[in-house]
Amino acid sequence: MNKFELFSKEHFFYLVSYSLITFLFIILSLKVENKKKFARNSAIIIGILKISELAYRLIVLDEPIRFLLPLHLCNLTLIAAIIAMISGSRFFLNLTYFWSAGTVFALLTPEVRINFPHLLNIIFFLTHFYLIFSAVSCIKTFNFKPTFKNLIKAFKYVNFAFIIIFFINLMLGTNYMFVNYKPSFRSPLDYMGPWPYYIVCLEIITFICFALMYLPFHKKKR
After folding, report:
1. What are 109-153's pLDDT values in tens digits?
2. Any idea which of 1-5, 82-86, 99-103 has the lowest mean pLDDT?
3. Residues with Cβ < 8 Å from 69, sequence gap 6 or more?
4. Peptide bond into 117 cis (omega under 30)
C-alpha cells in the first residue's frame, strides 16, 4: 500500500486532475435543465460516499468512534453543503459558501495517508472538491447573493463551533479543528507560532478569506 506524501508528484497530480473534474462537473451542472435536482442528487451521492468512508474506517480499520465524528471544519461544511443542496436553505447556503474557504488549506495539506486508488484517498479528494462545487452552486444554482451581514454570521458561527469543539476535544481526548493543539503532520499552522497564538492567526486568516469571498458581490452592488 503506497503511503501518501505531502507535496509529492502524486499530490500535485491529484490537485490538478480533481480540479479539472470539478470544473467539468460545474459546467455540466450549469448545462442541465433542472439544476436544483442535479445539485440534490449530487449531494445524496456524496453523502453516501462519506458514510461509506466512515463505515470502512469503523468496521475494517477498527478506528474508535471518537475519532470518526464529523467535527473538523471541512466535515461540518460538507454536512452544511449536503443540507443546502437538498433543501436550498439560505442558512446552510451561507455556511456552505463561506466555510468552503477552508477547503483550499485542507487540499494543500491533506490528512489522507494512502495513495490512489485506495477508497479513503478517493473519497477524501472527492468530498473536499465537492465543497468547491457546492460553493459555486450556492451562487449559480440557488442564486445566493452574500451580504456583509452573511459574512459576519458565517464568521460568528464558525467561532461558536470552535468554542464548542474545544471542550468536546477536552472530554474525548481528540483534536478536531486543531483548536487544542497543532496536528502531528506538516501544515501551515507550523508557521503561526505556538498555541494559542496560531488560533489568533487562524481567526485573522479566516476573516480575510471570508472578506475576499464577499468582495465580488460588494463591488457588484456598488
Report:
1. 777 777 667 778 888 889 999 999 999 999 999 999 999 999 999
2. 1-5
3. 172, 174, 176
4. yes
The reported pLDDT for the residue numbered 1 is 52
Max CA distance (Å), the chain:
55
Going by C-beta distance under 8 Å and a sequence separation of 6 or more, which residues neighbour residue 200?
Answer: none
Q: Which amino acid is present at 174?
A: T
Q: How many whole angstroms separate alpha carbon 184 and alpha carbon 22?
A: 30
The cell for 6 is: 505531502
**Cα–Cα distance for residue pair 65/25, rounded to 1 Å:** 33
Read off the C-alpha cell for 111: 490528512
Residues in the chain, overall count: 222
pLDDT tens digits along 157-195: 999 999 999 999 999 999 999 999 888 777 777 788 888
Residue type for position 140: K
**Cell numbers 468530498: residue:** 127
Q: With CA atoms as reference, report the closest residue to 179 among 168, 121, 188.
A: 168
Q: What are phi and psi of 160, to 5 degrees?
A: -60, -40
